[in-house]
Design brief:
two-stranded antiparallel sheet, 32% helix, 18% strand, 313 residues, Arginase, Chain A
Length: 313
């Protein structure tokens, strides 16, 4: 009687349906000279967080959740199994130096863009501090940059009290004139979550601010479509910055600054879809997920789904 081995050295015992392609099967480790559709990079840095955070573990947590979704969209009757995601890996961070890490993130993002391997980019943080070096790199290569920031907070804290933190990225970008205030749109700003001084600063800098009250009155899709159109007429590229604490704690429990009164998961996904339809939207970062605080990977699963809405139009 012939004997068969069921051993798979070096491989996990994962069920495979011959008719189903999972998103993680579209991911290819980047090698020089490759071209694809979407570039993926991990920015695993959270030591600048003013809250206790292990957001540096989020890039791998989100990647693992990509295997939960198929490439087929039933609503569109489209299969995206041909979509090539080139993974540039995670930036190797310094164990102690904040300034060194900011520089490493900036250099690495600029290196990724410089390969011209893909037309769109997804950056997985990390805390929101990673957006400063990332947006700086995009601005230097693409020119005038518009930003749609989904966030409960303004993230324009002063630099005197704590230096460069995850609460200061947009303050830094504005003060260093890397971005113009009128080109920064903040959506999802939550009540009782910011200081008056920072609300005043945002208004003084001519930021376009939409609170959760505005979303309730106007609807999130009209807001996103209006601002994406406006930014597309006056900037060279649009960058989405998704702080997951913009989402209500019921849908995204794994955030260091989790709280009630935010967006639903469906509102977030609809907003990303609406924004990503504009051809000038080229990049999106996803920040502020702490897998150690998450429940059943709910926040990382939502982040992975947001990636699909960004990639597939």
């Amino acid at each position: 009687m012939e004997r068969f081995s069921f051993l798979q050295p070096g491989k996990a015992a994962i069920f495979k349906d011959r008719f189903v392609t999972k998103i993680n099967e579209c991911v290819i480790p980047y090698e020089k000279g490759m071209t694809g559709d979407t570039a993926l990079i991990g920015l695993p840095f959270s030591k600048s967080s003013i809250s206790s955070s292990q957001a540096s573990d989020a890039p791998q947590a989100i990647r693992s959740c990509m295997g939960l979704y198929s490439t087929f969209s039933g609503e569109r009757n489209m299969d995206y199994s041909h979509h090539k995601i080139l993974d540039f890996g995670d930036v190797r961070t310094h164990p102690t130096s904040l300034s060194e890490n900011v520089n490493r993130l900036y250099v690495s993002v600029k290196e990724m863009i410089g390969t011209n391997a893909c037309s769109r980019y997804i950056l997985l943080g990390g805390d929101h501090g990673v957006s400063y070096p990332s947006i700086r790199a995009f601005q230097e290569i693409f020119g005038a940059i518009g930003i749609i920031q989904f966030d409960a907070h303004h993230d324009v804290r002063n630099l005197e009290d704590g230096g460069r933190t995850n609460g200061t990225p947009f303050r830094s970008l504005l003060e260093e004139e890397i971005i113009e205030g009128e080109n920064l749109v903040q959506i999802g700003i939550r009540d009782f979550s910011n200081a008056k001084a920072y609300s005043d600063y945002a208004l003084e800098k001519n930021l376009s601010i939409y609170t959760m009250g505005d979303i309730e009155r106007m609807g999130i899709i009209p807001i996103v479509e209006k601002e994406a159109k406006r930014l597309s007429e006056k900037t060279d590229v649009i960058y989405l910055s998704l702080d997951m604490d913009a989402v209500d704690q019921a849908f995204a429990p794994g955030c260091p600054a989790v709280g009630p009164g935010g967006m639903t998961g469906r509102e977030l996904l609809a907003a990303i879809s609406a924004a990503a339809k504009h051809e000038k939207v080229r990049a999106m970062d996803i920040v502020e997920i702490d897998p150690s605080k998450d429940f059943l990977d709910m926040t990382s699963r939502l982040a992975a789904h947001a990636m699909l809405r960004f990639m597939f139009q």
